[in-house]
Amino acid sequence: MKVSITHRHMPMTDLMRQYAEERATRLEKYFDRVLKLEVILSHEKERHIAELIATTAHGEKLVGHAVKDDMCAALDIATDKLERQIVKTKEKLRGARAKRARGRTKGTEAPVIVEAPEEVPEA
Predict the structure, then answer these.
(1) How many angstroms separate the CA atoms of 42 and 89, rounded?
(2) Are 40 and 51 in contact (CB under 8 A)?
């Protein structure tokens, strides 16, 4: 998974970059089909904003967004939101696969042939 971290209107410390990478890579254990993860950290007045955008192999974009007074808290909340979306997406895919698999097993059963009883010629 490729992780890119962007910061706006604030200096990026090594500690904050390390924390953001740690939280971002934690998402990989839930769904291995996340190809790219963008972490956007910004600061406006007294608000810290964290936004995580995940792009899956199916082309879906999942977004977690949080605003808090503390950047770590905002990043935690945004990660939790994105985590729930990733789990939900994974469950949807599993459900669709299970439905297809169930449909396939019904169609692959051997057909039952019912033979009509033979008529006995009358003497």
Answers:
(1) 27
(2) yes
User: Are 64 and 81 a contacting pair, CB within 8 Å?
Assistant: yes
By the 8 A CB rule, do 42 and 49 touch? yes
Tokens found for residue 40: 């956007």
Secondary-structure class of domain 2-101 per CATH: alpha beta
| Structure tokens belonging to residue 4 | 């890119």
> Residue 19 half-sphere exposure, CB side, CA atoms within 13 Å?
14
Q: At residue 97, what is the residue type? A: R
Question: Can you tell me the distance from the alpha carbon of 50 to that of 7, in angstroms, rounded to the nearest whole number?
Answer: 9
pLDDT digits (tens, 9 = 90+) for 4-29: 999 998 898 899 999 999 988 888 88
Q: Tell me: the pLDDT tens digits for 61-91?
A: 999 999 999 999 999 999 999 999 998 988 8
In three-state secondary structure terms, 64 is: strand
